[in-house]
Each structure stands twice: as C-alpha cells, then as structure tokens.
Amino acid sequence: MSSLPMGNTGQEGASIAIAVEGLTKTFHTRRGIPNVVAVEDVSFSVETGSTLGIVGESGSGKSTVARCLLGLTPVDSGAIEVLGRSLVGAPAKQLRSWRSEMQIVFQEPYESLDPRYRVHQAVAEPLLLHTDLRGDVLGRKVLDLLEHVSLQPELARRYPHELSGGQQQRVNIARALATSPKVLVLDEPTASLDVSVQEGVLRLLLALQEEFGLTYVLISHDLTAIRAVCEQVAVMYAGRFVEIGPVDEVLSNPRHPYTEFLIGAELSVDPDVSPLAGIVRGEVATSERPPGCLFAPRCPMRVDQCEEGRPLFESVAPDHVAACLFADRSVDWSD
Asked: What residues have CB less than 8 Å from 275, skipping those under 6 apart?
C-alpha cells in the first residue's frame, strides 16, 4: 500500500495549478462539546486548465477544503500551493493581493449578492477593489462580463431579487471573472437551482474554462455535475479522501464501498441496482474519530482489520487509488 500520489493524477509534463499536501483542519468548539475534525490529512493536485471534483455527503469536509484553498479558513497543518504560491502562513495582506487570481462561486446565489446593489454595482465591486478601471471604461467592462455569462445588458439595472436563481448565479460567475482569475473554486454552484437551469450553468462553466484556460475545483454532492465538468474526482468522507482518479474510471468502477454507496444512492434505492444504497445507515461522523477506517461503522463489508488503522491508498488502475482493504480486488457487495 502507498499514500496518495501528489503528481501522477494527470498527463506527464502538465503544469500544476494547485498542490495540497497533508491538509488538516479542526474546528474547536465550546467546552464540553467535542471538537469537529473537518479535514484530516488530505492531499491532491490539479493540473492547469482542468477540473477536480470533490464529492461526498453533507458534513464530509468539502466546503472546508474550498475555503482553505483560498486562504479564507486558516489550516492546522499541511501545505497549499496555488499558482506556485504557498498560502499557508502567508500574511493577510499578501493573501488579499493574490485573491484576484483565485475566486470562489458559492452555493446560494441570492445570499452571495448584496441586495442593496444593482447588478452592475455587484459586478463592478471587485474591479473597483483590484483594478484602476473607472467611469465609462468600468461600465463597458461590466457589460462585457455580463455578455460572457449570457446575460442581457438591460439586466445590469436590476436588483438581485428581480432575477431568477439562474440569472443570480450567472451574476456571481461574472463577479468571479471580473479580476481575470486563473483558478475558480465552485462550491455547489448549481445545488439550489432547478434541474433545467443547472444544465445551462454547467455548460457555461465549461465554455468559460475553454475560453480562459481556467482551473476549477468543483465541490458537489451531485454526481451528474461531476460527470459533466470534471476530469478527476476525489471522493471525500468524514474529512478524508477515500478514492480519487479519472471521473469515468472511478464512477464506472468504484473500489471503495462509500463511492459505491454514493453512486447507488444517486441512481436508485433498488438493491438489484446497488445493494449498498439500501444497506448503509447513519450519517457522517465528524467528532467521534475511530482509530481505523472512518467509514467502518456504516460499512456492511467491514471486518476486524478495518478498525485497526487508517487504510492507505491502494493503486487499482492507472491514476486510480482507493483507501480500502478491498480496493485491489473485485467485491460482490451483495454477498
């Protein structure tokens, strides 16, 4: 067995936009309440111009990873490099100056916008903070950004509550693009949108990535979105990655029972489709940390050895690893 490889999840010679190693973050609570381990020893890398998806249930630690990537949440330990810059321990002033190249799109489009600002004010705000654009030049830039996200110029005068959810999220994407970033973290960007609207937003994100050469980290619980946008996917459970590899490979040939559970829960609760979807019970535990596999308390395949220590990553296919005792063999989950 081996630990998760940092640099061999993509094509040889490709440049790395994001490199994370040993990331750990614990939230300390009030006396008498157990601390919450949000992220534990997470490592990964993302090639320039590509998309890594991070998928898992609520409480898995996905959004904490997103905020740590942008320096919005301080880390306990580990290393984070974005665009060749080390974020951990960097002064706040330095982080602010770098943030123009690293932006985030949040889950709730309306809550991400100031209700007092018209659309043109919302999109102009990051330009006023990070550039010298003013007056007519600033106005033209705002309209250009709205055009890039397929919004009509007359919407620039509207307030957020006068827009649909999809339009609100397109405004947020335009805001994120305003400072010409190289990296976008997308934290459940379509989760609160209707299914028909989700598809349009995902198509927009793909088009923008191709046009501007953007690097994405997509945080999601929606495997449809992961399949549509990502080249690589990392499956996260209780603060740890349990499987990572090419999207098609991981989702068509899962080697961790938790990945199998997520796929089955998405497709059907029919045990003939995915037995684990009807067997796995309980929720993600964040405060109680058993010494072994964190999924073992919920896993119908657990054996005594699962509780003896954290499973290391096992290579199961090119660029595909899973942290499970059964990762290197075919498992009939129905046995």
From this structure: 264, 333, 334
pLDDT in tens, 172-187: 999 999 999 999 999 9
Q: Read off the tokens for 317.
A: 């296919």
Report the half-sphere exposure of 163 (CA within 13 A, side-chain side). Answer: 26
Angstrom distance (rounded) from CA 3 to CA 315:
9
Q: Do the strands 36-47 and 85-86 form a parallel or antiparallel pair, or are they unpaired?
A: unpaired
For the chain, the domain total comes to 2
255 lies in some domain: yes
Task: Quote the domain boundaries for residue 135.
Answer: 91-181
Of 134, 160, 181, the position where a domain reaches its end is: 181
- Both 13 and 109 in one domain: the answer is no
- pLDDT of 164 > 90? The answer is yes
pLDDT tens sequence across 43-76: 999 999 999 999 999 889 999 999 999 999 999 9
Tokens representing 12? 């040889």
- 223 domain residue, yes or no: yes
What band does 99 get if pLDDT is binned at 50, 70 and 90? confident
Q: Which candidate, 152, 160, 151, places its Cα nearest to that of 121?
A: 160
Q: Is the dihedral of CA 304, 309, 315, 317 positive or negative?
A: positive
